[in-house]
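Can't paste images in this forum, so I'm doing it all in text. The chain is below; anyone willing to post the predicted structure tokens underneath?
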Amino acid sequence: MVGNLIYYSFIPIGLWILFYVIVTVLESKFQIFMPKKVFWLLLTLVIVAFIVIGLVIGSLNL
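Text version of the structure:
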């Protein structure tokens, strides 16, 4: 069970870091500007939803 919780918690965090790096590189290299507050709010909400769903699935698969 602990392995499932770690698995379902760290993958979304890794995805969030990956998205952060990609967007930072795009903005610095190609001068693509996004409404950062809206973008990061939506991205964080999606990642939190994935974490919650993952925790529920992890707790069901005892």
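The longest helix spans residues 2-30. Residues 2-60 form one domain.
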